Amino acid sequence: MPSGRVRPALAYAQWLLLAVAGFALALSLNRYFFGADVLTFVVTRAANLSLRHGPSHYTAYAYVFYGALHNARTGEYDVGHAFGEAALALARRFGNR
Prior knowledge:
Number of helices: 4
Shape: globular
Structural class: mainly alpha
Mean pLDDT: 75
Radius of gyration: 14 Å
């Protein structure tokens, strides 16, 4: 936990979740080249964590990558497009460019 402050359990859990999501997504590009199964797991897990615990600044990346994987596996381009639109909205919300 950063800065040695005592945090409530929920705040700590959210901080830990953000740290794990950031680490997992940082590895996802490497996983694209080394193993599709690992990439699918990492991206799906990050999107699932965001849906269960609320969005973070990593959520847009997870959603757009999930949409691309969904398109490739199912051919349901409208679902992938919806995830891309959600990713853009979240990126704007968090001030990402």
